[in-house]
Amino acid sequence: QVLLVESGGETVQPGGSLRLSCAASGLTFDLSPIAWFRQAPGKEREGVSCSASSIGDEYYAASVKGRFTISRDSFKRTVYLQMDNLNPEDTGIYFCASHDAPMYKCNAWSLYNYWGQGTRVTVSS
Questions:
Q1: In terms of C-beta density within 10 A (0-12 exposed, 13-18 middle, 19 or more buried), how is residue 82 classed?
Q2: Distance (Å, rounded) from C-alpha 15 to C-alpha 42?
Q3: In which residue ranges of the chain is pLDDT below 50?
Q4: pLDDT tens figures, 74-99
Q5: What is the pLDDT of residue 54?
Q6: Cβ atoms of residues 103 and 59 within 8 Å
């Protein structure tokens, strides 16, 4: 059974930083694609960043490129999303997700079929 558990969301001021964590179990961690999505109030969920595998493709949405960094710790079976220079438009619930097959390009967002419960990020002064 695949289990994804996010943590690290909180309220932060504009310009601040947060690191989100996604602890994964029940999957072949190094080979599994893992993505971060977010859903802002009143908006549809969007893909933010993804990692196809521990050595594979990475992707960042244009709105976060240069500010967010995705990384993996194979020993801890955890994927991180380092978020710097946050702005109010980054506010939302952040979800990590995985897919039960390898992906060459990890930004095929509709294929992700395992989801965590989400962690809330609020960027506000």
A1: middle
A2: 23
A3: none
A4: 999 999 999 999 999 999 999 999 99
A5: 83
A6: no
